[in-house]
Design a protein that fits this description.
Strand content: 15-25%
Number of helices: 14
Strand order of the largest sheet: 2-8-7-6-5-3-4
Bound molecules: pyridoxal-5'-phosphate
Distance between the termini: 14 Å
Order of helices and strands: EHHEHEHHEHEHEHHEEHHHEEHEEEH
Radius of gyration: 21 Å
Helix content: 40-55%
Number of strands: 13
Length: 351
């Protein structure tokens, strides 16, 4: 077997490397001490983010995980419940931070295939909320696009319904928008429109937008001020963070529109893999840059398939047991997609 000359890494859009122009923007960044509020690049990024999202303020943080944690801690007092999708990143992939660091209680809610939460279950868990035997609810969390649901677009009318519901119950709404720009590009709606029903929104600069690091929390001035203090508390106050912000500014200005190429590539990938024998993949589920597929019944163990792909220079990930994920992103070209489909076909024939 020949050693692959080029690795097609489809494990995640977090493996993106910064484009050459972004690296230059980082090198040339104007910087200062951001803990003193004196980093001009960070200030510009936070202003731009707030403006894009139609909110009062924004704060740059090291990661999406910290962004979600700060947004939740800024809105929910200790001992309160946060209603989270049982397939959400907040519930599954963030090490229980809201509980450990914030004394919050996760109330997992069934998630529909499109990422929407089961509204009847939300009503059911809020029933009797004033009973002193119960922990009171504080925040409902949503995710758009929804990662574990395959990058699906959260239906906007669901977000509106959750907003009305939260208003009637005196709760706030948090939107984990790690990939909200994918949602904006795929739906044709502005991020401000997608974010409007939420009190707080987080987004990642470090995924499809190709910045090396960084996420942002947006919301009203009071919420963001609280998040800023909590960022310090958790050790996320950074000094010359303008080097990160410069990449973020470049990402917001130059990297958003090209996400449509990733979506096109994901559709091509899905179409290609779907035609292979022994594979289950619903092309209707590929709405943005994520493709999930599984092997039919008595196929070999998934880890053997992934290992064989790896040996041929194609990387994918088993995320849930038996579910293989491939994510398109900056750096993945149509030729890479064709190569990946070919290699998956080869491997399924031989393994
Ligand atoms: C990636 C991701 C996060 C966490 O971001 P990190 O920067 O990896 O901490 C949160 N929510 C969703 C939906 C994500 O996809």
């Amino acid at each position: 077997m020949t050693v692959p000359e080029r690795v097609v890494d489809l494990r995640s859009d977090t493996v993106t490397l910064p484009p050459p122009e972004m690296r230059r923007a980082i090198a040339d960044a104007e910087v200062g001490d951001d803990v003193y509020g004196e980093d001009p690049s960070v200030n510009r990024l936070e202003e731009l983010a707030a403006e894009r999202f139609g909110k009062e303020a924004a704060v740059l943080v090291p990661s999406g995980t910290m962004a979600n944690l700060l947004a939740l801690l800024a809105q929910a007092p200790r001992g309160h419940k946060i209603l989270v999708g049982d397939r959400s990143d907040i519930f599954l992939w963030e090490a229980g931070g809201a509980s450990v660091a914030g004394g919050l209680i996760y109330e997992p809610i069934r998630t529909n295939p499109d990422g929407a939460l089961d509204e009847q279950q939300i009503e059911a868990v809020l029933y009797g909320r004033d009973d002193p035997q119960r922990a009171p609810p504080a925040v409902i969390c949503l995710e758009n696009t929804h990662g574990m649901c395959g990058g699906r677009l959260l239906p906007q009318d669901h977000l509106d319904a959750i907003r009305r519901f939260a208003n009637s119950e005196g709760l706030s709404v948090h939107l984990d928008g790690a990939r909200i720009f994918n949602a904006a590009v795929a739906s044709g709606l502005e991020v401000a429109k997608l974010a409007a029903p939420a009190d707080s929104v987080c987004f990642c600069l470090s995924k499809g937008l190709a910045a090396p690091v960084g996420s942002v929390v947006v919301g009203n001035a009071e919420l963001v001020a609280r998040a800023r203090r909590l960022r310090r508390l958790l050790g996320g106050g950074m000094r010359q963070a303008g080097f990160i912000a410069a990449a973020g500014l470049f990402a917001l200005e130059k990297m958003v529109d090209r996400l449509r190429e990733d979506h096109l590539n994901a559709r091509r990938l899905g179409e290609g893999i779907r035609r292979l024998p022994g594979v289950r993949l619903d092309p209707g589920e590929v709405e943005t840059n994520i493709v999930f597929w599984t092997l039919d019944g008595d196929r070999p163990h998934v880890s053997a398939v992934l290992q064989a792909l790896e040996e041929r220079g194609v990387r994918m990930l088993e995320l849930d047991r038996g579910r293989i994920r491939a994510v398109t992103h900056y750096g993945i070209e149509p030729d890479d997609v064709a190569r990946a489909v070919e290699v998956v076909g080869e491997v399924l024939e031989r393994v």
